[in-house]
Structures are given as structure tokens and as C-alpha cells.
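The instructor's notes for this session suggest beginning with a concrete chain rather than abstract definitions. Hand out the sequence below and ask the class to guess, before any prediction is shown, which regions might be ordered.
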Amino acid sequence: MSLKESYNKLTSLIEETLLIGTIQNILNWDFETYMPPKGVEQRAKQFAYLAKVAHEKTTDPIIGNLLKTIMEHPEYRTLTDIEKRNLYLIKREYDKETRVPSELVAEIAAQSAKTIQVWKEAKKEKNYLLYKPELNKILALTKKRAHYINPNLEPFDVLLDEFEPGMTSDIITKLFNELKAGLIPLIEKCITSSNQPDISLLKRNCPIEIQKRLSTSIASIVNYDLERGSIDETEHPFTTGYYDDVRITTHYYENDFVDSFYSVMHEAGHALYEQNLNRDFLYTSVGNYCSLGIHESQSRFIENILGRSPEFWEYYLPIFKKITGEIFSDVKTHSLVHALNRVIPSKIRVTADEVTYCLHIIIRFEIERDLLTGKISVDELPSVWNRKYKDYLGVDIEDNTEGVMQDTHWAGGAFGYFPTYALGNIYNAQMLNAMLKDLSNFKELIKTGQLSPIINWMIEKVHKPANMYDPPELMKRITGEEINPKYFIQYLEKKYSKIYGF
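After discussion, reveal the predicted structure:
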């Protein structure tokens, strides 16, 4: 078999596993949106079966043999950089997954579905004791899997590397310490400023049907293609899909239009990344996204850097008023922008303001790191969580629904995921610094609603490279330097000093 024939056979096998992944995505979307409540046990079996099949295909010895044949072939050097990257990614995944028994993969998939369902019930009932046994099970299974992958590393570092290749808890700690050093004094300046916003205007009753029209309007403005996507409702907003079927979800509250408005902007940012990956890479390993941190940089760029900017609302407020009618007819741009960018230490991550948000992530990072090393137990989670929220953000947690049970990530076994959210802020501010060198009329483009040049810059620099590079290399190619949190601090200081007048 020639080198080319071996390579083509390998990539055709990988395409099968990727197709299974797209099926899993749609089943998960249905699980979180329209699936009947009594379908949980059946769906758990479906998840387990597909996870097992995908794992078996990923770890098929034929893949290992083909990788060995290709990489030892005398003409290996004639392969393109894209083909070599593809092989590297396939081998990285193969080496990892062959260490994990397929039975464990299926068990984790089934337990994840069960834990998420119990989390929903426990959250509704404000009953951590109901959730705790299932959380203990998924934690134990996740640690077991991490040990199989690399018994010589701390479980947290093994899991973190899956979401953000090349990152370690030591690197994250250094980056987050720099963030804290810049954020804490900035938060203090904002909350002690005499120029505080009137946030009551954000709580005006806005019917859900109107909010749905706002969602469609936002999608159009940021170039989210609804012919290849949809906007649905769920408990916890998320994005799922691949290239031509990328779906987002949101949650509507009549007395809080901001919640759905910005969750749609956030998820649309994720969806744009998936819809604009390089079509030449479709159904290949290199055709996936780079990392969850890079993914988050795209969502928070759309949500915050664009969507909460004064320039965006100079353009969008007339459209907003037309859709909402009399509800916000008296609102001025300055007052609305100030309210939307209010800095108030809060209990809930997903509704946290742009300045305090990273402290929510740092709390979660520290907790899950200590949970996985055994320094704290699942029994202690509520008390540890509540204490950190008091120490870091000065807020009192009244019940576990607004505390340790507010997120779905740990229920699904996604330990090591949370740091990627703060990394997204670091990345997108550094990208913005590079973008401004190419688009000197950046603010004018936003003011006039011409977002396409901005989004196209992201498509060319971030989306189209897909998974050709790990995050540190991609960031260096985009910005010309190593990952640096100073740009996020500088961005916040410049923006909020103007808004709060200090």
C-alpha cells in the first residue's frame, strides 16, 4: 500500500468517528431541549452505546498500524504540513484513548447523563443531598479515566490538557494571579465610584415573544447563519454542532431581557467559530476547533467586546427600540450602556459582569483542582464554595442553587473545563490588540453596524486555521507574542474608566 493510500484509508476511518460525534451532538441537544423527562434512562443507554462505539473506532488497532506505517514510511517527509498535523492529532487522540477501557467510556457517558438529570432536579428542589451521590460517582469515574490516560500526572492536569492542550495548573495559576492583581483594584474603583448606573431599566417587563425577535435580530447582525443553525430554549445555554448544523440555546426571563440577549450573543460567537471552520478540513481531525479557550475567546468577543461596547449600542439602540416598542422608548444610549456594563460582585457566573467574571472562574479553578487532588471532598463543596464567594466577591450564598449547583459542568464530568473561560478573555483582548493594527476604523465599523470586516478578520485569523496549531502557537501567529493577560486588564481599564469616570 502506498503512502497516499495508507493516509486516505486512515482519514476515512477518522471520518467515521467524527460522524458519530455529530450524532452525539444532536442527541445531546435534544436531551437538553425537547426530550421527554421520562426518556432519561433510554437516552443514557443511547449515549453509552455511541460513546462505546466511538471509542472502539477511535482505538481500532488498524488505526495504530496505519499510523506506524505512515510515520515510518520513507516518503513521510513529502506529506504536507496539514497532513502531518492531521497525523499528529490522530496519534495524540489514539494514544490517549487506547489507554482507557471502552467499558469505562460507556460507564462515564451513562453516569454523566444521569448526573445531569439529577442536577436539574436537585437544582429545582434546592437539594444538594440529592445531587451529591451522583456527583461523587462522576468524579470518581473521571479521576479513574485521568489515571488511565497518564498515571504520572495529577488528574487535574490530565483533564485540563484535554480542553486546553499544553496548559498546566502551574501556568494557569501564574496567569490567574496576574489577572487578580489587575482586577481587584479595578473592581474597587468601579464599585466605589459615585457615578453608578440605574440598572432598574434592565428589569422592565419584556414579553418572551419580543425577546425571541431580538434573538433573531442579533443572529443576523453578527452573521450567525440560521439556515445552518437554530435558537432554542434550555436550562443552561450552550452551543452544539459542526459546520452546517450548529445550534444555540438560550433561556428567557420576562423581567430580564439582558439574560437571553447576551446569552444569544455569547452562543452566536461560539456558533460563528463552528460555522466558519475551514471547509477544506471537513471531517478531519485538523478540521475541529483549536481549544475551548480559543472557542471562548470568540463567544466573549461577540458578547462583550462588541455587544457591550458604546459603539454597538449607538448603532443598535434604534433597532432595539423598534423591536421592543414602548418598553424602552425613553432609554438613552449612555444610560443603557452604563447599566449593561455595571460592575456588581454577584453570585451567578453566567450573569456576572465583564470585570468580575474572571473571579468566578478563579474560584472554580481552585475548587476543582483541590477536589481532584483530594484536598477537599464533595461533602465539603458547598461550604468551600460559599467561603470563597465571601472572600473573593464579598457576597453571601443563601442556597446551593445559586452556589455550588449553579453550573452543569461538573455534573457532566467536565472537570478542568472552567479555566478556559478566563483564558478566553485573555485571548480575545490580545487578539483585539492585534486587530486594531489591521482595522484602525474598528470603532467606526461598529457604530455603523458594519461588523463583517471585524468578523471576517476573526474568520481568517482564528476560524479557518481550525486545529492546525495548539493555542500558544496560534496566539503567537495571530498576535506575534506569547499569551499575555496584560491586554485584558488594559482593555478593561480603558473601557471602564470612561464609563465610570475615574
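Then share the key points. The chain is about 65% helix and 5% strand. The chain has a mean pLDDT of 95.
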